[in-house]
Records
---
Amino acid sequence: AEEAEAKDEL
Amino acid sequence: MNLFRLLGDMTHLLSIIVLLLKINATRSCRGVSLKTQELYAIVFVCRYLDLFTNFISLYNTVMKVIFLGSTFTIIYWMRFHKVIRVTYDRDQDTFRYQFLIIPCLLLSLILNSEFTVMEVLWTFSIYLEAVAILPQLVLLQRTNNIDNLTGNYIFLLGSYRALYILNWIYRFLTEPNYRQYLVWISGIVQTIVYIDFFYYYIRSWKNNEKLSLPA
């Protein structure tokens, strides 16, 4: 879940 | 979305616009590394696979499409445009893809947060982006005659990375569960790659001289 948060970055 | 992130993305976008304009206006891609552009294409394709599975925001989707489209446009021009392709420094742009792709692929198979195809490819794209500029920097050092726009393109790319680090610091301080160690470490490595270039870029700008990198 932590990493999924980061997926909003390009 | 914080200001650093937005400025970072806008700087990234601007760097690509500068490159597109330069190539289109001068009908020349002299000094531009096709290898770096193709590595970026691999980076974007692997990272943006979630375009089809995970909608984040309209902003996010539009930017992803722009990055993919512009990179493939540059590659198309450099490979197939009848005027532009002739100006490509084929003999100097000799960095080997496999030196970057294979280690990054192996590393992403070992160091990832989840062993799935999507996640490994995403992680691979993070590692590959960190080193994708290297063929461009090597070419720059070789051609020894850097036009302003190529220099500005690399400077903008480096600035975008520096702004992303500020974005991560800001997010770390403001979002309680925000942590992404692989991305941070790769991002810091990626920014370090630019430090040498930044030094010469700023020096030439201060002294009002043409940019050149020592061999």
Note: The helical segments of chain B are 3-26, 34-47, 58-80, 97-110, 117-131, 134-143, 148-174, 181-206.
---
Amino acid sequence: MKYTIAVHGGAGTILQTNMTPGLEQNYKRGLQQALNAGYSILENGGTAMDAAVAAVIVLEDDILFNAGRGSVFTKKGLHEMDAAVMNGADLMAGAVCGVQHIRNPIKLAEAVMLKTEHVMLCGDGAANFAKEQGFVFEPDEYFFSKFRYDQWNEMKGSDAYQLDHSVKNTGKKFG
Amino acid sequence: TVGAVACDMQGNIAAATSTGGMTNKNYGRIGDSPLIGCGTYANNKTCAVSCTGHGELFIKVVAAYDVSCLMEYANMNLHDAMNKVVNEKLVAINGEGGIIGVDAKGNFALLFNSEGMYRGVKTSDGLNEVAIYK
């Protein structure tokens, strides 16, 4: 039976002029490490769910990507993260939103799926659940990246916002 | 936003998505892609998908579940269903971003309507690719 893993980072206006060969190499290395983490589980007979979560953990731990370590800054200069998982075999699903200081939000989403009767937990409630489950919490410094901080500084004090990998504020309002 | 989709040896599939959201977001805004049905969805009968991009637009078109519905009810294959959502439905409302997906046979697609998307795929057939631009 053929097995497959695919991963993504962000999408947007990724300007090639802003991309140095070294930076491009680092992005590609991060993506490859995520693929390898998931693939090694699959080739050893592991589940698709475990493989997908393992791949995302690698990307959450990589400061270049907007998830976990390296997340973007909110208007208040904080990091608020969201994550979700779904298993195609039994349609079980779990998600968290607006969580802070959780090292790997994807693991927390998986715990919501596996250990609660709920699908989505948010904010302080999700944090309380994480504490009960013994999750690793990190200080703000863990999530800090200079690149994201500079992005935020360009917009600080305004009502504008932008996609993680776009170079300009779109000025659009949605929803 | 990051994500992964996988198909294992047993033909089971799964999706996972995680994000820090948008820079300078306010008011407890959520709605990047990690919402079940909008940016993350998996069903062995159809597909497992993970999305990235302007989350509000993915919410409006219920993008992830829509890919599954197009496969289940309109008998589209994975690529065509994803193409319909990424390059027609999202584009129609100026929704920028991309989707990665697998089906239970290990087929995959990585589609986006933006200038680039960080992405990669590895299969038991020996394919191993990472890319950023079109």
Note: Chain A touches chain B through 93 residues (CB under 8 Å).
